[in-house]
TrEMBL record:
A GO CC term assigned to this protein in UniProt: membrane
Entry-linked InterPro entries: EXS_C
Keywords tagged on the record: Membrane, Transmembrane, Transmembrane helix
Pfam families noted in UniProt: EXS
Residues of the EXS domain: 213-510
Species in which this protein is naturally found: Dacryopinax primogenitus (strain DJM 731)
Compartment list: Membrane
Topology of this chain in the membrane: Multi-pass membrane protein
Transmembrane segments: 29-47, 97-119, 131-150, 299-318
Keyword tRNA processing: no
Domain of life: Eukaryota
Name of the protein described by the UniProt record: EXS-domain-containing protein
Length: 517
């Protein structure tokens, strides 16, 4: 949404009143074009995710395709993950997404250039040609649905994933690929709201240089649109809980994470009530001179849920989505009690290279904080192969496989996990820190009332782009953890695997498709 409109306009002004001063950012880059730009950023982000994961030696293709043999061969938009051509399929998929982005960028970029040329920055001309971005988006939607052969398989894969997200099956668990897609949707929550605002600007109020007042039905529809991605993900968690015969509470805790976003979104929309109440009490000049209204209960509730949502989602990212132990109480409790944390764990960074070549896995021994049952890995298992674990008496060391086949030993990095597919532990710490900062920013960005603050300029657009970047980084570590966990589970005995992931084993015991969150 736009934040270039003065505060009083966004709250109280008539929908059809134009501003005496329109910020340059809104003239050169109206909200509908910002929506199209953010969508393009998501496409190129996904293409680079797939590309870099392959270069880093992570079998993203094997993790993202559905592995259920009963579903292979169905027309669900997923090729079989078995066979010797999986490497070529991965590369073909990445190249396909790149080509789609190139066509998208050329189409939108040309449209924006012609729009700028035709309007010349004049407000009346901008509003006269306001239908241009709508035409661009309509053509994109037609292209996605097109029966022509251009990147048809990739387009169908995306459409099938969207169908499963919006119209899920209530009798089977959620697949990892659909979880990743739904989580990406949550990073586009604000774009969902912006999309409706753009349509309202183009087809109802007749101008795109300023945001219409959020009142009446608009005040309800915009936060509801923003809530759709969180509802999708929450519903997936509830389905997972029911499919597991209610034996695992973890999906409920995960659902709670997405549920905390709803109070942030709707309490933000309710901040107009705060402004009206305080204006009646203090006068308009005093109230609009500041953005802090801590004396009002609704404002304090909004801040409380912003904090809860930010901290809970950050903790879940690190502990559950990435499988890191940095925020686990067992790591910090001894330190808080004045004791030195000890561990018998030894961490090992797996070598990078071709994730589809089993010979790229090193045979160097590693230690693990869980006991392993030595057995031959299942050849049908997709994912980066892990070596057969062995006991290493020096549990405080980290083993890093070098490109020449040798190993180097370093002190064990605290708060990570036994298997690291990325070589440098400091990268994990840097991404954790950055994720916390962007999580706090993102929770604020879910607050639609902040878009009416003029002095932030293009701030909300930057925040939306940063959230997409945060999700881009999140995908690298989420897919890495999925690959590591699947490989670990296939290299341990059944009883010990339950210690690693209760949900996974409960589904294997019932003969159901495993689900990863």
């Amino acid at each position: 949404m736009d934040i270039d409109t003065p505060g009083e306009t966004g709250i109280f002004a008539d929908d059809h009143r134009h501003l005496f001063w329109v910020p340059a950012f809104s003239k050169s880059f109206p909200l509908p074009f910002r929506v199209l730009t953010l969508l393009g950023l998501g496409i190129i982000g996904w293409a680079t995710n797939l590309h870099l994961l392959r270069l880093l030696g992570v079998d993203a293709y094997g993790a993202l395709v559905k592995n259920s043999a009963s579903l292979r061969g169905q027309n669900d938009g997923f090729p079989s993950s078995s066979g010797g051509n999986k490497r070529e399929q991965d590369r073909a998929l990445t190249a396909s997404v790149y080509r789609l982005f190139l066509v998208y960028a050329l189409w939108v970029g040309t449209g924006w250039f012609l729009f700028r040329y035709a309007t010349g920055g004049d407000e009346d001309m901008i509003n006269r040609y306001r239908a241009v971005p709508a035409i661009l988006l309509a053509a994109i939607l037609l292209g996605i649905l097109s029966p022509y052969s251009f990147e048809k398989h990739t387009r169908e894969t995306f459409l099938q994933g969207c169908r499963r997200c919006f119209i899920p099956s209530f009798s089977q668990p959620t697949y990892f690929c659909d979880i990743v897609l739904a989580d990406i949707f949550t990073s586009f929550a604000k774009v969902f709201g912006d999309l409706y605002i753009s349509a309202h600007q183009i087809f109802w109020v007749g101008y795109v240089t300023s945001v219409p007042a959020q009142k009446g039905m608009l005040q309800l529809i915009v936060p509801t649109m923003m809530s759709i991605p969180y509802f999708i993900r929450l519903r997936q968690c509830c389905i997972d809980y029911l499919v597991s015969d209610r034996r695992s509470k973890r999906p409920l805790y995960n659902a709670l994470k997405y549920a905390t976003a709803f109070p942030v979104i709707y309490l933000s929309s309710a901040q107009t009530i705060v402004i009206r109440d305080l204006i009646a009490e203090k006068g308009e000049a005093r109230v609009l001179a500041t953005h802090w209204h801590g004396e009002h209960t609704l404002f304090r509730l909004w801040l409380l849920f912003v904090f809860i949502n930010s901290i809970y989602t950050f903790w879940w990212d690190v502990t559950n989505d990435w499988g890191l132990s940095l925020l686990e109480p067992s790591l910090w409790w001894p330190i808080l009690r004045g004791q030195q944390a000890t561990s018998s764990q030894s961490y090992r960074s797996l070598p990078t290279g071709d994730p589809y070549d089993a010979s790229s896995a090193s045979d160097y021994p590693i230690s693990h904080h869980r006991a392993y049952t030595n057995r031959t890995p299942d050849p049908q298992v997709d994912g980066t192969p892990l070596p057969t674990p062995a006991t290493n008496p020096r549990g405080s060391e980290t083993f890093y496989a070098l490109s020449n086949g040798s190993t180097s030993k370093l002190p064990r990095p605290p708060g990570l996990r036994p298997h690291l597919l990325y070589r440098y532990p400091r990268v994990y710490y840097a991404i954790i820190t950055l994720n916390l900062i962007l999580r706090l920013t993102w929770s604020l960005k879910l607050s639609s009332h902040l878009h009416n603050v003029t002095e932030f300029g293009s701030g909300v657009f930057i925040m939306e782009a940063l959230e997409i970047v945060r999700r881009w980084l999140w995908v690298f570590f989420r897919v890495e953890w999925e690959v590591v966990r699947k490989a670990e589970l296939e290299n341990v005995g059944f009883g010990l695997a339950l210690e690693i992931d209760e949900d996974y084993e409960l589904r294997r015991r019932d003969g159901k498709e495993p689900i990863v969150r």
